[in-house]
Amino acid sequence: MSEALKGNPAWNKGKPHSEETKQKISRANKGRKHSEETRRKNSKVKLGMSPEALTILIDWLLRAGWSKTKITRELRKSQNTIRKYAPHVSK
Q1: Domain that holds residue 86
Q2: Which residues of the chain have pLDDT under 50?
Q3: Measured in whole angstroms, how far is the alpha carbon of residue 57 from the centre of its chain?
Q4: What pTM, to 2 d.p., does this model score?
Q5: Distant-in-sequence contacts of 70-75, Cβ < 8 A, 24+ apart
């Protein structure tokens, strides 16, 4: 890549792919094996935060004055999840 183009968006950024191109990309990726590193990362992401850690964090944020709405937004959890791990929180 030339120095002049570094840091600039690709020429086709934002252009939608045709249906034919989407099919070609799909076929090319079918059956693709993920590396061991990628599999470990995906596994770690799916584990998320332990229930104990989530309970401690929610309690701490509530004591810090955060609202339930702000907690749900920041932690990307539903209000039902917040109530589940912090039952002392009123509805």
Answers
A1: 50-91
A2: none
A3: 19
A4: 0.45
A5: none
